[in-house]
Amino acid sequence: MFHHAGGSHLLYRGWAAHFPEDWELCLLEAPGRGHLQMLPLIDDCDQLVDYFHDALAPWLDRPFGFFGHSMGSLIAYQLTRRLVREGGPLPEWLGVSAYGAPQGEAGDDGSRHLMPDDELRDWLRNAGGSPPQLLDNDAIWRKFGPLFRGDFKLVDTWAPPRDPDPLPVPLSVFGGRGDTLIGEGRLLAWRAFTRDFRGLEMYEGDHFYLTHHRRPLAAAITAATRATAPDS
Fold first, then answer.
1. 18-22, 82-86, 102-106, 193-197: least confident range
2. How far lies 124's CA from each of 92, 100, 115, 118, 132, in Å?
3. Mean of the pLDDT values across residues 68-80?
4. Nearest-angstrom CA–CA distance, 137 and 87
5. What is the Cα–Cα distance from 88 to 176, expressed in whole angstroms?
6. C-alpha span between 82 and 58 (Å, rounded)
7. Residue 104: what pLDDT?
8. pLDDT mean over 133-143
9. At what angle do helices 71-86 and 138-156 cross, to 10 degrees?
10. Which residues contact 33 (CB under 8 A, 6 or more apart)?
11. Span 87-94, mean pLDDT?
12. Which CATH architecture has domain 9-108+160-227?
């Protein structure tokens, strides 16, 4: 499970209780935060995909799936593409949440990493998901601001592939009905990026709708993954 820009594995804290007991949830952490805070930030998409590819390599000898939220969706998608290029093994299922299908050129979604501090903090307030004390306290912001800028630079400067082949992996999409950042059209556009589109599920809430729907989302992920199993 891949976290959002400016976030950490804590996005998924407590989710394991809602999944089957014989499943193992890998709550991945990008460098520069949590127990990896001593490592330098990675602000390039390909480099972060390389990092996770190496970290996950020992675990890809068993059935697995990917789920990403926001920036995490981009990483999960790009990592899946890399595994396809290398000839596998491939995830049995890919879930993307609150992230629009790739379109246009690098920077089409804005240049948030270049915003002045006050403007970026206002943008984050409107997006939701960030504790008010982080955005309102200058001392705390000085610590976490570079983390947001690094992650946003990764997303803002990523160049979408031109006419990519649809993934040979089942793909499901999730979103919040009140998300002002990603509309339903951008979410449905993912159908062109897979040979097996498993549909779009919308939930009440904004860009961080998933924090209020852990149980139904876990059930949806479980059902979608089981539906793709060879013996299903």
1. 102-106
2. 34, 18, 11, 10, 10
3. 97
4. 48
5. 32
6. 16
7. 65
8. 87
9. 40
10. 7, 8, 147
11. 94
12. 3-Layer(aba) Sandwich (3.40)
Please state, in angstroms and rounded to a whole number, the distance separating the CA atoms of residues 100 and 103: 8
pLDDT (average), residues 16-40:
93
Single out the residue of 65, 84, 12, 48 nearest to residue 172, CA to CA.
Answer: 65
Encode 169-197 in three state secondary structure: EEEEEEEECCCCCCCHHHHHHHHHHEEEE
Spatial distance between the Cα atoms of 208 and 212, rounded to a whole number of angstroms = 8
Domain locations in the chain? 9-108+160-227
Average pLDDT on 81-103 reads: 95
Please tell me the predicted confidence (pLDDT) of residue 232: 47
Q: What gap in Å lies between CA 32 and CA 167, rounded to an integer?
A: 30
Single-letter amino acid, residue 149 = R
Preceding peptide of 164 cis, ω within 30°: no
Q: How confident is the model at residue 35 (pLDDT cuts 50, 70, 90)?
A: confident
